[in-house]
Amino acid sequence: MKRHSPHLDEDALIEYRIYSEKDFLHPPGSLTIGEEVAGTGTASAMLDGPIGAVRFLFERAARGLPLAEGQGISTAAVTGVYPVRRGAEVEARFGPDLCVRSTIGVA
User: Are 92 and 99 in contact (CB under 8 A)?
Assistant: First the structure.
């Protein structure tokens, strides 16, 4: 099947369309560990953008990367990758409206 999207290559395993008026590429993102901001960035600066990060994850899952229902996944593509200790409070914020908080534990 020939794809016509400029965002996909011939070997892509998933297709996407975004019909939202909300700008998710330019709001600032930040990662806070404890009380310290560890990293900042925007989705527009990411290699292949946020859809590319998700596509990468799905392609790895198709090749055997185990994914479980309810599992939280962070690509860290916007803010960078940082060491986190067990018990640390972590917050990822994207613009003024979107925030995810968690406490790091052991499964």
Answer: yes
- Which pair of tokens denotes residue 10? 């011939």
Decide: residue 79, CB within 10 A, 0-12 exposed, 13-18 middle, 19+ buried: buried
- Maximum average pLDDT range among 84-88, 91-95, 96-100: 84-88
- CA dist 47 to 24, 52, 99, Å? 15, 8, 22
- Look up the pTM and report it: 0.65
SS3 37: strand
List pLDDT tens digits, range 76-92.
Answer: 778 888 999 999 999 99
Q: How far from 43 is each of 1, 2, 75, 78, 83, CA to CA, in Å?
A: 29, 28, 11, 6, 21
Using one digit for the tens of pLDDT, what is the confidence trace for 8-20?
Answer: 455 555 555 555 6
Please name the amino acid found at residue 95.
Answer: G
Q: Is 50 helix (H, G, I), strand (E, B) or coil?
A: helix
